């Protein structure tokens, strides 16, 4: 496939599930733009620049990856990056309804923009950033859920008190 794709999210923090979807997208598309959403309404644990850096470190082994931040509509970001495909991860059936509605809304806003759904490995189908933050905050081991740079950042954040 010669088109570029965008994988977008808040990535607070990036998890092994996110990384798995990005890796799968990188096998299909020659250029994958990872859009890190500002989304201040979510009150993120990590600031925007920290999240961008953690995504960069976690995806350093992949070719064709571009990382940038965005605010506003994903379809506008995709257009600004000359991207024709949005890649979304589906962890469980419960994600489908929300993602389906978003895909249809995005199609209405930008009819030439396609949405493709990828499922992460079954091992990561239950992993969410919010669960990871809670495990880290309570002193649990996050090594099975996040890449090593994120694990170190979580340890540093929560050991600092």
Give short descriptive properties of this protein:
single chain, 161 residues, alpha/beta, Rossmann fold, five-stranded parallel beta sheet, 5 strands, PPAT, coenzyme a biosynthesis, Cyt_trans-like, pantetheine-phosphate adenylyltransferase activity, Phosphopantetheine adenylyltransferase
What can you tell me about this protein's structure?
The structure is a single chain. This protein has a single domain, classed as 3-Layer(aba) Sandwich (Rossmann fold), CATH 3.40.50. The chain contains six helices and five strands. The protein has helices spanning 16-28, 48-58, 74-80, 93-109, 129-137, 148-159, and strands at 4-9, 31-37, 65-70, 85-89, 114-118. Strands 3-2-1-4-5 form a five-stranded parallel β-sheet. β1 (4-9), α1 and β2 (31-37) form a beta-alpha-beta unit.
Oligomeric state of the chains in view? single chain
Give the strand line-up of the largest sheet: 3-2-1-4-5
CATH class: Alpha Beta
Overall pLDDT, averaged? 94
The Cα radius of gyration reads 15 Å
Helical content stands at 40-55%
Distance between the termini: 47 Å
The helix count comes to 6
What class would the helix/strand composition place it in? alpha/beta
Low-confidence stretches: none
Give the overall form. Answer: globular
CATH superfamily: HUPs
The CATH level-2 architecture is identified as 3-Layer(aba) Sandwich
SSE succession? EHEHEHEHEHH
Tally of DSSP β-strands: 5
CATH topology value: Rossmann fold
Summed up, the domain count is 1
Instruction: Please indicate the percent range of residues in DSSP E strands (runs of 2 or more).
Output: 15-25%
Pfam family, one: CTP_transf_like
Catalytic activity: (R)-4'-phosphopantetheine + ATP + H(+) = 3'-dephospho-CoA + diphosphate
Family: Belongs to the bacterial CoaD family.
EC number: 2.7.7.3
């Amino acid at each position: 496939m010669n088109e570029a794709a965008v994988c977008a999210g808040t990535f607070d923090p990036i998890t092994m599930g996110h990384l798995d979807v990005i890796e799968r997208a990188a096998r299909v598309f020659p250029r994958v733009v990872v859009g890190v959403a500002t989304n201040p309404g979510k009150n993120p644990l990590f600031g925007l620049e920290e999240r961008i850096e953690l995504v960069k470190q976690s995806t350093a082994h992949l070719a064709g990856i571009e990382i940038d931040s965005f605010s506003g509509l994903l379809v506008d970001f995709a257009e600004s990056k000359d991207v024709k495909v949005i890649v979304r991860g589906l962890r469980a059936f419960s994600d489908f309804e929300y993602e389906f509605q978003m895909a249809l809304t995005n199609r209405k806003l930008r009819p030439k923009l396609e949405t493709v759904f990828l499922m992460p490995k079954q091992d990561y189908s239950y992993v969410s950033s919010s669960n990871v933050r809670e495990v880290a905050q309570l002193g649990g081991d996050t090594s099975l859920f996040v890449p090593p740079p994120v694990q170190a950042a979580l340890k540093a954040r929560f050991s600092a008190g």
